[in-house]
């Protein structure tokens, strides 16, 4: 099965590491593992998503469970359908921002509770490998169709409170952001780039973390005089923002803006991932909220949100999680949250963010290394004078800088994030740590 069962989802190259017959077996194993009776299935626009959906559906129904097919949709729409339709489970067929050859499955229990490698994906892998699907059910499940678009649109629109009209530019990347943001056009004046659905992604990779993909949107925002720009990834569970000057807004700065806005109305707990700026924790506290750090990864964040009943969570990769969307991502809600903030201020987005850019960040720097365990031990020894913790990889804090080094769950990489009070110190420490990571490679 060539390693398609990953930490957060199942993902492979269609026709090679992920086939229709495998999808059918995964469907059977999914029902066997969960004992579920009603499963929501949605899919993205890749050409092979429908064949995979058909095979997955057959496996699920052959195992006796019913399927609610919500059709082509964004991942946040699938999460919403899972919860609102009171399903036992949900599967979104997508490979997110991966190239067109890839596809996969994001798995959930009832109420959109994620299934990760540690909470079920590895168990499902074992069932598939052994084809251990238990006794044959008494009958096959049935399939019904349900268009969730209008319901999701009404759900999102409840959060629209704008003080003045705004003009927004959006880069849909020919992907599921088109459906995710469809109802926003009833609320906001949105001009779209690459707004025809095409699962071959002919214009650019659907990934706002890749800054090269944002060039057209940045130019459009500046030339058109828009209030801000927004870019969605392939399945629209991640969102990137551009200010009115065409500058990329760091994703943890969006976490600050949204958290502060929410806390101005209601006090509560906000989660932020450990790669985020010190400023996130500081502003949450200053706004009367309770900041809680979390490890990287949507499954971990969603579970922790439920444990502490967090209102909101922001991740440096552009995932924005809302308690009001079953503790899951909603790019439409994130877009509306930023629109609400901008519409209520006399300042443009660039000026609103400026007071929170208190430190200098390295950004996430990836390095290939075959000696990750050795590197972590060496870093522990060298930086033993700081406050160290191992929530996710190794984090060490000093009075005027901090770093986190962690091993990727999805690629053979070590990821460094570092922040300091001055640019010179950031660059000095960044280079120092990269030399250790890359020594001998």
Tell me what you see in this structure.
This protein has 441 residues and is an alpha/beta fold. The chain folds into three domains: 10-147, Alpha-D-Glucose-1,6-Bisphosphate, subunit A, domain 3 (Alpha-D-Glucose-1,6-Bisphosphate, Chain A, domain 3, 3-Layer(aba) Sandwich), CATH 3.40.120; 165-356, Alpha-D-Glucose-1,6-Bisphosphate, subunit A, domain 3 (Alpha-D-Glucose-1,6-Bisphosphate, Chain A, domain 3); 360-438, Alpha-D-phosphohexomutase, C-terminal domain (TATA-Binding Protein, 2-Layer Sandwich), CATH 3.30.310.50. It contains 14 helices and 22 strands. The strands form four sheets. It has a six-stranded mixed β-sheet, sandwiched between helices. Strand 2, helix 2 (49-62) and strand 3 (66-72) form a beta-alpha-beta unit. Helix 1 (20-34) packs across helix 2 (49-62), helix 8 (251-265) runs parallel beside helix 9 and helix 8 crosses helix 11. The radius of gyration is 22 Å and the shape is globular. 52% of the residues are buried.
């Amino acid at each position: 099965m060539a390693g398609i069962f990953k930490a957060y989802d199942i993902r492979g190259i269609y026709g090679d590491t992920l086939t229709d017959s495998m999808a059918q077996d995964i469907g059977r194993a999914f029902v066997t593992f969960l004992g579920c009776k009603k499963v929501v299935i949605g899919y993205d626009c890749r050409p092979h998503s429908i064949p995979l959906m058909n095979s997955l559906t057959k496996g699920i129904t052959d195992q006796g469970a019913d399927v609610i097919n919500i059709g082509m949709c964004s991942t946040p729409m699938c999460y919403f359908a899972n919860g609102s339709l009171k399903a036992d489970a949900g599967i979104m067929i997508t490979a997110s921002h991966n190239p067109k050859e890839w596809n996969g499955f994001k798995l959930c229990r009832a109420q959109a509770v994620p299934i990760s490698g540690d909470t079920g994906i590895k168990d499902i892998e074992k069932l598939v490998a052994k084809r251990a699907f238990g006794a044959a059910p008494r009958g096959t499940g049935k399939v019904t169709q349900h268009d969730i678009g209008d319901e999701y649109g009404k759900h999102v629109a409840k959060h629209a409170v704008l003080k003045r009209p705004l003009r927004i530019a959006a880069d849909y990347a020919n992907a599921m952001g088109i459906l995710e943001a469809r109802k926003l056009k009833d609320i906001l004046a949105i001009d779209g780039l690459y707004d025809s659905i095409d699962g071959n992604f002919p214009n650019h990779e659907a990934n706002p973390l890749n800054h090269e993909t944002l060039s057209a949107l940045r130019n459009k925002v500046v030339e058109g005089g828009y209030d801000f720009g927004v870019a969605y990834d392939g399945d629209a569970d991640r969102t990137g923002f551009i200010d009115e000057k065409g500058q990329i807004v760091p994703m943890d700065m969006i976490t600050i803006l949204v958290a502060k806005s929410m806390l101005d109305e209601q006090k509560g707990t906000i989660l932020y991932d450990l790669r985020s700026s010190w400023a996130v924790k500081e502003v949450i506290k200053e706004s009367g909220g309770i900041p809680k750090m979390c490890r990287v990864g949507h499954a971990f964040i969603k579970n922790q949100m439920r444990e502490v009943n967090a209102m909101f969570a922001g991740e440096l990769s552009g995932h924005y999680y809302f308690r009001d969307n079953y503790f899951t991502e909603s790019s439409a809600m994130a877009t509306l949250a930023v629109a609400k903030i901008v519409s209520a201020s006399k300042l443009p987005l660039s000026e609103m963010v400026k007071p929170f850019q208190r430190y200098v960040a390295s950004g996430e720097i990836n390095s290939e290394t075959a000696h990750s365990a050795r590197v972590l031990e060496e870093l522990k020894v060298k930086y033993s004078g700081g406050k160290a913790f191992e929530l996710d990889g190794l984090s060490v804090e000093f009075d005027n800088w901090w770093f986190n080094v962690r091993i990727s769950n999805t690629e053979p990489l070590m990821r460094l994030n570092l922040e300091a009070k001055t640019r010179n110190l950031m660059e000095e420490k960044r280079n120092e740590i990269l030399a250790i990571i890359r020594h001998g490679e």
